[in-house]
Amino acid sequence: GCTSVDNIEIPTQIDNKEEIIEESDYTILYNKLFMVSMEFNKMKQGLHTLRIEQTNTERELVELKQKMASISNDNNTIEDTLLTNSNNDNTIIFMSIYNLTDTKKKLIHSIKQNSNFNVILGLDSKYAHCINELKEITGDNNDIILLDYDKLIGKYTSKINNFNGKWETNPSKLGAYDWFNNSTYSYMWYIEDDVFSKDWDVFFNKYKDNNCDLIYKYISEFPSWYYKNWRVGSKLHAIHLAHLYVHRVSKSFTNKLIDTIKNEHNTSHHELFIPYVRYKYNCSYKELDVDDTKYSTTNGTGENVGYSKEFIERNESNLFHPVKIL
């Protein structure tokens, strides 16, 4: 309790300086221990709160999965019967271009020459100075559109920063979905600009006889960045992980994706958010054939710059990603 000032005895003479010093050291040590104890209690409380939040989140995720699993397929069956299979007239290839290198020129030329679909090149507006070089490859100005990140922010707000993933201001994937959603096509193949195929026509023909909402590669394990909450707007978005360097979407799925981005408070990395939307609306899907994903993976860092020309030539697989030098 508090002590009255009248009861405090003030010494008039210091007889033992060593005792005063030892008492001072003890006080300092006590204060330090007290502060450590306080911080430890705060940490325990924080961990307790975190466990509660994690438990609630996992419970919400389980409930969401159960709810989605219980949805009848009847609604989607009616919609799917109205869809035709992919064909040359209703399917577009959208290739995103971040910058322009000699290898990318080869890849662009290859996909335009060796596929029966029309090709749209979505050039990041930060590299608008490359547009004349692209025109020389395409020979048709209508094949090139500029994707502007600031315009996407104006349309969907800064919550899309999570969706864009590693390159926060890269408009490629969302720009492609936004363009496709307003187009007259029924299906869109999205191709990153470091994907190589020995025969694009053979690849596309594998999947033309279906009307799935989504064709992609997916895995059940989550990467390390997920557990660090990097680009994760909500744990509810974690259904599984999608590899999207090559994938196909329907107009129906893209419409649901755009609506979800607009209406939800947060987004997550597109590798999480795409499967979440598919799961949320019970959209039909197909996994890419194993032969087409054998030598396809997400972009590496450091020395892992991609598959070399020599590696591609000595392997019988048709599809390779990433390919940086050809």
Defining key terms:
13 helices, seven-stranded mixed beta sheet, disordered N terminus, 14% strand, 326 residues, 9 strands
Give a verbal description of the structure.
The chain has 326 residues and is an alpha/beta fold. The protein has helices at residues 17-70, 74-81, 102-113, 131-138, 149-156, 160-163, 172-181, 200-205, 224-227, 251-263, 270-280, 290-293, 309-313, and strands spanning 91-97, 118-124, 144-147, 187-191, 196-197, 214-219, 241-250, 285-287, 319-320. It has a seven-stranded mixed β-sheet with strand order 3-2-1-4-7-6-8, with helices on both faces. A two-stranded antiparallel sheet has the order 5-9. Helix 3 (102-113) links the parallel strand 1 (91-97) and strand 2. Helix 7 packs across helix 10 (251-263).
Layout of helices and strands:
Elements: H1 17-70, H2 74-81, E1 91-97, H3 102-113, E2 118-124, H4 131-138, E3 144-147, H5 149-156, H6 160-163, H7 172-181, E4 187-191, E5 196-197, H8 200-205, E6 214-219, H9 224-227, E7 241-250, H10 251-263, H11 270-280, E8 285-287, H12 290-293, H13 309-313, E9 319-320
Parallel strand pairs: 1-2, 1-4, 2-3, 6-8
Antiparallel strand pairs: 4-7, 5-9, 6-7
Helix pairs in contact: 7-10
